[in-house]
Amino acid sequence: MRRLEGYHGDPDTKNFCQPFGPPWPLQTASMDLGSQFFWASILLQAFVLPSCLCVSVRFPSQQTVYVVSGQNLVLQAEFELPQGDHITKVTWEHEVEGRRNSGKTTVAEYPAKSSGGRVTVDKGGSVMTLRNYQRTDNGVYTVTVRDQKGGQSSAHCTVHEYEAVHHVSVMVNVSHSSLHCMEAWGTEPVFRWLHEKAAVTEAVGRVSADGTSLYLNTALCGHFTCMVSNKLGHSSATYTAVPCERESRGTAVAVVCLMFLLLLAGGLAFLLWRKRISYSSRGERLREPDEDI
């Protein structure tokens, strides 16, 4: 088999091989079981197996392909051919996803046809490039390959526009002490939680594996922000609970009082030191006249 390498899409291949060769010969009643099995194996290898060696096509990835509006869509398929066979025609078609009876539109053929200069095919028809991708280009793309023996194979790939993140909201579940980030639109969103504009720590709560939920380990107070981002930007929503002022105010008062006490103690120590130095100096002056007499 010959293989042409490739790259994107959803493999959903269908191979239509046209069997050929003479029909199975009738086995006579006089042949024993061993002879029947022997001749069946010979005929199977000679006629049936070669008839299934036809062209096949697939997309390696099973995931949906996302394309940013205005950029180029590149789809690349893999072709496999029997030895000595060659491709006679490759057809690329587009069908709007979710619409009944919308029908398929041929966007490119190899050799020859392409649509309006936006679509080109390369590498023997295995690579299709669609320039300046738009929302109307969303849908299912089908590549069909035909070989010189009349066999054909098809594969399908779903393509969507890569959308920016928007319409983010935060829902709170008071009974379970949890917050949930509701992201309405956006491709490949990444979630991040903030409390009072700082990243959430374990003391505040635990974030779920997918990042959409925050389970609190502390009181529901202050500002909780869910930030959702992808490669096109970010959007956020904030839930405001009761202020967390009591604990912070009490801590601030305690810190101020401690600082005041430290300053007071330092001032008293300084005054005592100065007083001791003053008494020591006065005593030395009083002893000096006695020594002269």
Automatic annotation (TrEMBL):
It is found in: Membrane. The chain crosses the membrane at residues 252-273. GO terms for cellular component: cell-cell junction; membrane. SMART domains: IG (SM00409). This is Immunoglobulin domain-containing protein. Residues 62-160 form the Immunoglobulin domain. PANTHER family: SIGNALING LYMPHOCYTIC ACTIVATION MOLECULE, VASCULAR ENDOTHELIAL GROWTH FACTOR RECEPTOR 1. Pfam families: V-set. Keywords: Glycoprotein, Membrane, Signal, Transmembrane, Transmembrane helix.
